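Troubleshooting log. The previous structure file for this entry was overwritten by mistake, so regenerating from the original sequence record. Sequence copied from the archived sheet and checked twice against the printout by T.R.
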Amino acid sequence: MDMIKNTTLLLVLALGLAACGPGRNSPMNSAAVRTVGGAAVGALVADKTGGSKTKGALIGAVAGGVSCVNGSCY
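Regenerated output below.
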């Protein structure tokens, strides 16, 4: 149960931090920046919640990358 809670927390935080920046030329509109940022946030959150940093980084990277699926990244 604890793993599900941690995974959900990581996903929510990574998606929230992967939001678009203002304007088309914003670095946050890059899939690469979102993926790397999501991985970093995922690892940090996993470390603070006692989870695996590797799994947290993977979940965060996927969440950051998926946030570009709707065509908002350039």
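The two ends are 38 Å apart (CA to CA). Archived copy saved in two places this time.
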